[in-house]
Structure formats: C-alpha cells, structure tokens
Amino acid sequence: MPIRIPDSLPAHAILEAENIFVMTEHRAMHQDIRPLNVLILNLMPTKIITETQLLRKLSNTPLQICVDFLQTASYTSTHTDPEHLKQFYYTFDQIKDRRYDGMIITGAPLDYVPYEETAYWDEVCKIMEWTKTHVHCTFHLCWGAYAGLYYHYGIKKFDLDKKLFGIFPHQILKKTSPLFRGFNDEFLAPHSRATDVNVSDVAAVPELEIMALTKEGSLAIAKTKDSRQFFVTCHAEYDANTLALEYNRDMEKGLTSVDLPINYFPDDDPTKAPVVTWRSTGQLLYSNWLNFYVYQSTPYDIKDIK
Fold first, then answer.
1. Whole-angstrom Cα distance, residue 209 to residue 229?
2. What chemistry does it catalyse, as a reaction equation (predicted)?
3. Is pLDDT of 11 > 90?
4. Is 152 annotated as catalytic?
5. Catalytic: 142?
6. Over the stretch 14-53, which tens digit does the pLDDT of each residue have?
7. Per the annotation, where are the binding residues for substrate?
8. What is the spatial distance between Cα 5 and Cα 22, in angstroms, rounded to a whole number?
9. What does the DSSP assignment read for 152-167?
10. What is the pTM of this model?
11. CATH: 3.40.50.880, 3.30.1070.10, 3.40.50.720, 3.40.50.150. Which one for 3-158+194-238+280-304?
C-alpha cells in the first residue's frame, strides 16, 4: 500500500523511480480511509537523505501513511536548504496539539557530546515527554535511542574504545515477537556509533525488555513491555553507500586512524561497491513495527490516543 507524502518532497521522485508506491496528497484526499499519522523528528544534518531512507522503509504498510516532519526550533540545521525546511518541516509549537499514531526520533552525530550540552536537549526532552500522551508508539533510533533511554529511564551512555562501524550479525532474544516476523534466526544490520549502554542497566529496568543484541553482546533493540516505545541502535534503513560515504568523509578529514567498516566492502577493498546484506532486515523491521505496534493497536479515532 502507498505512503502519503507532499507532492514536491524530493524523496517523491526517488521513491517512484524505485517502483515504490507513493501517493500524492491530492489523490489521498479522494480515498475514504483514515491514514496512519506518523511524525519524524529528523535530527540528522543530511535531512533529505534521512527522509528518503525512512520513507523507503515505511512504504510497505497496510494503510496510507501520512508523514509529517519535525525540526528543532532551538537549533537550525546548516546543512539543509532553509527553503526545504520552511516548506516541509514543522516546529514543535506548530504540532504540539496534534496526536500521532507513530513517531520516529532519528539519530544525530553527537556521540561524544553529553546530553545536557546538546544545543537542543531541552527541546528534545520536551518532545519526548509529549510523546507519552500524544503518540501511540515511538521508535527511537540510534542517538535517539540512547537519548530516550536516558531521558525516560536514566540509563547512561558511555564512549566505546573503538567505533562500532560496519555490518554486524545480531541474535534475536524474543523470537516469537511480531517485531521479528519473517526474520532469519540471525540478522545483519549496520552500526555506526562510538556510544553504547550497559545491557545490564537496560535489563534492570522492569518496564523494559531486550529484544536483540549484536553477536558481541551490545544492545541492538529494546522496547517497553507495553510496546509504546522502541529503542533501536542499528541502522537497518541505511542505503548501500551510507557507510562508504562516512568512511570517505572521515578519510578526507585526515582521520587516518579510521578503520574500514567491518563486513562491508568486498575483500575489504574500498574501491569495490558494497553488497547490501541488510535490505530485507530494514524492510521487515519498519513494516512489522508499523503493522503490529502502530496499526493493529492504535485507536481508530486519533483523538483517543493518550
């Protein structure tokens, strides 16, 4: 089924070229069904790339998905055309009285920055508090996952001795969970982070359950037992070249100590095109989240979300 986005959003043409069913607002207005309303707080500097990655994964859904994009008012991105932000993004004051079936809080390149020193930390805290009463199910991604675990449960992050960078195998701890419907017993997914949390700290919170770990034992996916909040540290939405672009960017900065991403380039040769081994993981993860934890349980009348 289609994903519903503004007609002129740059991702529209990209997704249509990939044969992904995208519905324009004009066409959607003539269908007598209630779409799922999803809000994306996009904290990434490369906003258009992140928009396209997430919309690609949200495209395989049982109903129309009406997506709104949220930016911070306390910090304005310097990497995105201001006209793009003006045309496609809301600020919190503009949507705070609305309710949403689902929300995604993205990552941000803030590995070594303490939360309280983040320019928009107070605003993100306000938004995360707001999700408790205005969003049926929230999907915290990468930095957003660590920020959510810290804000909601006081779980502190720590810096890794070495960046977790590449494609890693994962073990599923809750194999009967609808989140993993269609998954293999083990799955591959990208990581690109220099931050982690102690799994024991997550396990000690009665409201939380650990769903998946990397094979080395690092947290990959956790959620609340009432399934209203998800915390995902892997990037199953990444494009084929995302890690390559990051690696090349770091090399251009003169960071010669940067390691090659693990299990990514064939023969560890950065001149060779990466082979995507995580595409199905990404599609299943996001569609299962939408199908089972948003669509199946959200109130029909969106005003009943609380």
1. 11
2. L-homoserine + acetyl-CoA = O-acetyl-L-homoserine + CoA
3. no
4. no
5. yes
6. 766 775 656 556 555 544 567 899 999 999 999 999 999 9
7. 163, 192, 249
8. 7
9. HH-PPPEEEEEEEEEE
10. 0.88
11. 3.40.50.880
